[in-house]
Design brief:
alpha+beta; Elongation Factor Tu (Ef-tu), domain 3; NADH Oxidase; 4-stranded antiparallel sheet; 8 helices; 11 strands; globular; Nitroreductase-like
Amino acid sequence: MSGDYMISYEAEMIKDGRSVYIIIPFNAKEVFNKPKGTIYVKGTINNIPYRNKLISKGNNVQILIINKKLQDLLGYCGTIMKVELMITEDNIISDVLDTQDFIENCKLDVISAISTRKSIRKYTEQTITDKELNTILNAGFCAPSAKNKRPWNFIVVKNKDQLMELSKININGKMLQNANCCIIVCGDKILQGTKELLIADCSASTQNMLLASHGLGIGAVWCGVIQNSDWRKQIVKQFKLPESIIPISVISLGYPKEIRKSESRFDLSKIHNEIW
């Protein structure tokens, strides 16, 4: 459909746990002629500008997530809102992600990547290309998540001063000093209101990116972010995270300067059939 086609309707603002949203009262995929991929929209809610992606709640029901700042502007839940929406050209970005021109081919099959991946903390000066980095990020976007909410956001850090600053407080993050770049995996507390699920979703995304990195021949290590730690506070301040966004993990990336042999980790003693 054309980008200048606007849909207008009225709907109630709903609060479900920590999430606040407005339901789309029509099949957005059919109305916007977008049967596959993420649907990005822009418009107004009670004449206040809005721009975001639609979130699926299953059974062809999609919603507009309302963040805290917008809640303050709109008022109380239960209020009927006037919504005007149109699809945006951001959908072109989603389509590009499906092309081979954007994604690098990995060198390992998935089982080999899982079996041979090791944490790599020493790196050469070889630069990770944009295509390789986008391949890694795409793997993160493809991770499973509770109710398909995909609550992750990724901060890509290439600046050497930023990487050096990030490595100072956490002794386990010293490898960041020599990393080519890092990815900070963050979770949206509004989008996924259950903390345990938020951490699980972002952890799945982190693991996907570790495996993609290894498949490309790039070294990586997962640095966990303890939620009440000084490092977490530093990340929030250094990278200006909004109140609703929390850092879950930091992935250090670089071409390996070390070779670590893999070993079998299959352990029959930890397998329980039917009952413990």
